[in-house]
Amino acid sequence: LINCTIAGNIAGNAVIRRIGYGGGIYNDRRSNPTLKNCILWGNDDSGSGKKEDKQIYGRTAEVTYSCIEDDDPGFGSIPCGGVGSHNVDTNPKFVNHGQEYVYTKADSLHGGEPNYVLIKVNNDQAYQVGEIIEISNDGVCREVKTVKEIDAHTQFVTFMPPVSPKVMRNTIIYKWGPDVTSVIENYHLQDDSPCCDAGDNTAVDDPEDLEGNSRISDNPQVDDAGNGTAPFVDMGVYEWKGLKGGSG
Fold it and tell me: In order of start, what are the domains of the chain with their CATH numbers?
């Protein structure tokens, strides 16, 4: 896999073993993938504990010049070979991307009021008042109004605008954070993304990115960190272009 962005995926309960592993990539016994210039971020599952395992799980993978989310971004060990493999674990700074994905179940104890929901969460996925959530990719920004902790894995949350409890049952809530005005995912890179000019030019096998833009172009706002001869390719599916708004 070369210049791929694998983000925002979920591996839920599976039929086999009733558990999901590797929200980004799951390697079975016969799989030994090679990844270069890739981004694996914001993937989730219901089985593995560490964030890096949620991005890529299973047999050994050869990963170089890539960005991989872990539990301590910017600190300590970096997944899949660390700095020796020229990988990074800092936020890739997508233009707009949800941070957490939470399985939910509708509450049925409060008269069926449409904006009251009993949410099952992990400790690191708890909601805060003022955060924006999205229901099942419906494209609507909903603000969390109140949060009541029931136990370590359960919150009672109200939000507006409301939605029918029937819509909530066995679905997914996307957690976007407090400052989002749009829930349209955009995986282009911001101006100061650590993924800009940080890839391996020798791995590039296509002169164009997913949108048909030149695959290698310089971002003068970041330091060169790639391999080969400058300018260096970016990590991920889109090459930075400095589009309207300062990012692209």
Answer: 1-97+185-248 (no CATH), 100-177 (2.40.30.10)
